[in-house]
């Protein structure tokens, strides 16, 4: 894999992560459009990890307050913190139990393209 491909994918990840579009979908389709070799799930995970690091740095005060709220029932953030934990559990369990299916089926470019088109029409009609 060439450095230019990694740079382009990093830019696409950075631009699409916070928009109401699928950054993962764009990472899957970009190699097809630009005639690159598929980068695979490992690089996608690294790019998402970079996004996570940026979020952690930017929101460090807020995240620390929420984290401390897990252990202090008097804080306003106590309920919010535990709601975040509870809301994260289903996604984590689904990812854990269906990881192989997700990797093989949901990384299919046809599936991704159809879903991006479908949801873009829904957003347009809204």
UniProtKB/TrEMBL annotation:
Localization terms from the record: Cell membrane
A molecular function (GO) term: undecaprenyl-diphosphatase activity
Catalytic reaction equation(s): di-trans,octa-cis-undecaprenyl diphosphate + H2O = di-trans,octa-cis-undecaprenyl phosphate + phosphate + H(+)
Class of the enzyme per the UniProt entry, highest EC level: hydrolase
GO CC field: plasma membrane
Keyword S-adenosyl-L-methionine found: no
UniProt membrane topology term: Multi-pass membrane protein
EC number assigned by the record: 3.6.1.27
Main localization of the protein described in the UniProt heading: membrane
Transmembrane segments: 7-29, 41-59, 80-102
Keywords assigned by UniProt, alphabetized: Cell membrane, Hydrolase, Membrane, Transmembrane, Transmembrane helix
Family that this chain belongs to: Belongs to the UppP family.
Alphabetical list of PANTHER family matching this protein: UNDECAPRENYL-DIPHOSPHATASE
Name of the protein in question: Undecaprenyl-diphosphatase
Organism: marine metagenome
């Amino acid at each position: 894999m060439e450095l230019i491909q990694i740079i382009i994918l990093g830019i696409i990840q950075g631009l699409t992560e916070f928009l109401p579009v699928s950054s993962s979908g764009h990472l899957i389709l970009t190699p097809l459009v630009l005639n690159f070799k598929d980068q695979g799930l490992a690089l996608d995970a690294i790019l998402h990890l970079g996004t996570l690091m940026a979020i952690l740095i930017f929101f460090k005060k807020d995240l620390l307050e929420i984290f401390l709220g897990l252990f202090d029932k008097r804080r306003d953030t106590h309920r919010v913190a535990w709601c975040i934990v509870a809301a994260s559990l289903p996604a984590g369990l689904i990812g854990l139990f269906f990881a192989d299916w997700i990797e093989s089926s949901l990384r299919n470019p046809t599936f991704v393209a159809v879903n991006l088109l479908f949801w873009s029409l829904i957003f347009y009609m809204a």
